[in-house]
Design goal:
This protein is of the alpha+beta class and 184 residues long. Helices cover 45% and strands 20% of the residues. β4 and β5 form a beta hairpin.
Length: 184
């Protein structure tokens, strides 16, 4: 300083392992281990922040219980992983795909989501799940019913209830289809 050399002292430490450990801990807290999708707590957080122009899709697998009962939970788990892969592929234009429990998934669109856009995504989900899945010489068939609700200034709990009612309407209509909740 002021023309006089100054010594600096310090030390360095490799924190690579601590950083990797923190990253693993964060991943386990935010993602479902089986499917690699966001988990329920991440979904709940993002749903609470959803803009009024967004939309919620609830997806329930059709025929999954029969696969679990016939072939066991290990094969059921493989089907859940395949369903997650198909959902990711069908929902590339969305903002979040989450495994929220059992054979249930949720998809959030955080930006402008008009009716035709939502219906197109819903149809892609239904079509993607309809394809047979071959696992260890067995042809497994499952599908999806989809309930869609546009946010339209709904509280998160109300939005979820409306999407869930639309999902049950899709199941009542014969499964393998989608239904949109009526606007509020």
């Amino acid at each position: 300083r002021a023309g006089v050399p100054v010594r600096l002292f310090g030390f360095k430490q490799d924190i690579t392992e601590q950083k990797l450990s923190a990253d693993r801990t964060r991943y386990r807290a935010e993602f479902d281990r089986m499917t690699g999708l966001a988990n329920r707590s991440v979904f709940d957080e993002r749903l609470a922040q959803l803009s009024e122009s967004g939309a919620l899709f609830l997806v329930d697998l059709d025929g999954f219980k029969a696969i679990n009962d016939t072939y066991g939970h290990a094969v059921g788990d493989v089907c859940l992983q395949e369903a997650a892969r198909r959902l990711r592929a069908a929902c590339q234009e969305t903002d979040l795909v989450a495994h929220i429990g059992g054979d249930e998934f949720a998809v959030l669109v955080e930006r402008e989501a008009d009716g035709p856009f939502c219906e197109a995504i819903g149809r892609r989900i239904v079509a993607a799940m309809r394809d047979p899945y071959h696992h260890r010489g067995v042809c497994l068939r499952f599908g999806a019913s989809v309930g869609i609700a546009r946010a339209a200034a709904s509280a998160p709990a109300d939005l979820f209830t409306r999407a869930d009612a639309a999902l049950y309407a899709a199941k009542a209509a014969g499964r393998g289809t989608l239904r949109m909740a009526l606007p509020r």
